[in-house]
Amino acid sequence: MPSMFSCNCVELSKGIHNVKHCNEERVYDLQHLIQLIRSGKIGSASHIRAHRPRALRILWWTFDYSYDHHFLVTEATENKLTIIHYALKRLSRIILLKGVAEIIQDSVDFANDEEILDFDAGVYLVTAENYPQTPQEKSKAVCKARRRLGERQYSVFYNNCDCFVSWTLRGCSYSHQAMNAKGLLLYIGIVTRYCLRTYRALQTFKDCINKLRCLFGE
Fold first, then answer.
1. Are the C-beta atoms of 71 and 118 separated by less than 8 Å?
2. Are 55 and 62 in contact (CB under 8 A)?
3. Dihedrals phi, psi of 196, to nearest 5 degrees
4. CA 48 to chain centroid
5. Contact 166/174 with Cβ under 8 angstroms?
6. What residue stretches are annotated with the LRAT domain (predicted)?
7. CA-CA distance, 145 to 185, in Å (whole number)?
8. How many CB atoms lie within 10 A of CB 211?
9. Could you tell me if residue 93 is left (phi over 0), alpha (psi between -120 and 50 degrees) or otherwise beta?
């Protein structure tokens, strides 16, 4: 996928790009979510952040590696949300070199899906003054996001779910979470980064083998 989709997060953290402050409004439960949809606060090109509490317990030590998942709403009704996000794949598909993560479009059914919208853990509507405001700007942002459907160029620090939404709505790929990672989450990110490099090397090797098979099979 072309490198134009991302930019250097280290440079962003130095202020080279103008990343304006975001405001967040907590969504307390399903009824509150529906109220926000009815009022028009949540709709096309809305940015949602969902907290994912995670902890590793070893004897009497607890290591927190909680993180936030970000996604873009493309359509909102009183029954479901249609979203686009960078979704991690199941371990079995990763082992079979089917991709680590992929930008996909999901339908979040309010009646059945409690994983993406875990209100107890924390669901937030994120807004910023430099986000699309008019219907035309929002439509353009959604079309921009859809052009990246199927992308498998995930990077923990430089092209994650937060980067994707930031690029779609602001025009620059930046993850505040990645640039401020600490403790176990930072180490997990570093290890994952090298695992991704190994995975992509194996994927390239697999592609070369397949090309050789096709070549000699003709």
1. no
2. yes
3. -65, -40
4. 10
5. yes
6. 121-171
7. 27
8. 10
9. alpha
Range 29-58 average pLDDT: 92
- Phi then psi for residue 68, to 5 deg, are -115, 140
**Band (6; pLDDT cuts 50, 70, 90):** very low
3-state secondary structure of 25: strand
For residues 70 and 22, which has the higher predicted lDDT (pLDDT)?
70
| pLDDT tens string 65-93 | 788 999 999 999 999 999 999 987 654 44
Structure tokens at 11: 């440079």
Looking at residue 211, its amino acid is K
Phi-psi region of 98 (alpha: psi -120 to 50; beta: other; left: phi over 0): alpha
Flag the least confident range among 9-18, 31-40, 136-145, 184-193.
9-18
Beta bridge partner(s), residue 69: 50
Cβ contact 60:81 at 8 Å = no
Cβ–Cβ under 8 Å, residues 151 and 103 = yes
Match 């592609």 to its residue by tokens: 207
Spatial contact of 90 and 96, defined as CB atoms under 8 Å apart: no
| DSSP E strand boundaries for 95-158 | 101-109, 123-127
Q: Distance between CA atoms of 33 and 73, rounded to whole angstroms?
A: 13
Half-sphere exposure of 36 (CA within 13 A, CB side): 24
pLDDT value of residue 65:
73
Question: Per this entry, what is the length of the chain?
Answer: 218
Structure tokens belonging to residue 15: 């202020």
